[in-house]
Specification:
The structure is a single chain. By secondary structure, the chain is of the alpha/beta class. It contains 7 helices and 17 strands. Strand 7 and strand 8 form a beta hairpin. The protein is globular, with a radius of gyration of 23 Å.
Length: about 260
């Protein structure tokens, strides 16, 4: 099955050459990278084709295309594969997923529940780390995409179910419940029943008013301790030669995260 195949990454480094007439370095070859989902067949690029037998070489090997262009090859990791899944609008960003994991401490022994599956990016990321993950979604198209992505990543510990997180969560003793739904305050009670004592509830919201509604409702529940509400901003920098400055690429808001813990 393709999901179990060792996928590959091909990297071609940028090459520069000093031109005396210009008294400066000029880029003669652009950097390029490719993701090979099926290394059992020849891979075609604008730089020429690479034979399947070349794709089977060990990590770090140099392979040549039919046009004589050289690439370094290595095995993809889970992060490489996750970036290639099918994505739907408002897919949670890697930085926000990383904060959820680091703030809640989920690990190989954890059981996590996700809701508002969407393309399944967070559910898949959690399943890569946790013992078991169950994700709830009501949209048929989203269910189909998420299940396809889980299969692509070869995740056997992820169960994607059709159902509303607002009405019922039959599972118990969860370490984490993530609410990526339009009205997360409506799921506080069902999340409370599903969580073990000490477990975390996390709401991911796009609008500040959603965050406010969730926190206000959460604070009425004496079984939860509100930890924090926050947003995580990522800014890239350009660091090359004598240049050191923030990137001109736009950066900003992706979503708000509210963390709370069930204390009794």
């Amino acid at each position: 099955m393709q999901a179990m195949t060792k996928r590959k990454i091909l990297i071609r480094r940028e090459k520069r050459q000093f031109v005396p007439e210009l008294d400066r370095e000029v880029r003669v070859e652009k950097e390029a990278s490719f993701y090979v989902a099926d290394p059992e067949h020849d891979f075609h690029t604008k730089f020429g084709a690479i034979k399947a037998k070349e794709l089977r070489k060990k990590a770090g090997s140099t392979v040549k295309t039919s046009m004589g262009k050289e690439f370094t090859i290595f095995d993809s990791d889970f992060g490489d594969d996750l970036r290639r899944i099918k994505r739907l609008p408002q897919t949670m960003s890697a930085k926000d997923m990383g904060l959820i994991v680091s703030a809640t401490g989920v690990n190989k022994d954890s059981f996590a529940i996700d809701s508002g599956t969407g393309s399944g990016a967070l559910a898949c990321y959690l399943a890569h780390l946790c013992k078991k993950v169950i994700s709830y979604e009501i949209n048929e198209k989203h269910l189909e995409v998420a299940k396809e992505n889980a299969d692509f990543l070869g995740l056997k510990n992820l169960m994607i179910k059709k159902g509303s997180i607002y009405s019922k969560i039959p599972e118990k003793n969860a370490d984490l419940v993530v609410l990526d739904v339009p009205e997360p305050w409506k799921a506080i009670k069902t999340a409370e029943n599903a969580l073990k004592t000490g477990g975390y509830i996390v709401a991911y919201t796009i609008q500040a008013t959603q965050m406010l509604n969730f926190t206000n409702e959460l604070m009425k529940n004496k079984r939860f301790l509100l930890i924090k509400s926050c947003e995580l901003i990522e800014r890239s920098w350009k660091a090359e030669g004598n240049i050191l400055r923030p990137s001109t690429a736009p950066f900003g808001h992706t979503g708000f995260l509210t963390f709370a813990r069930k204390i009794c």
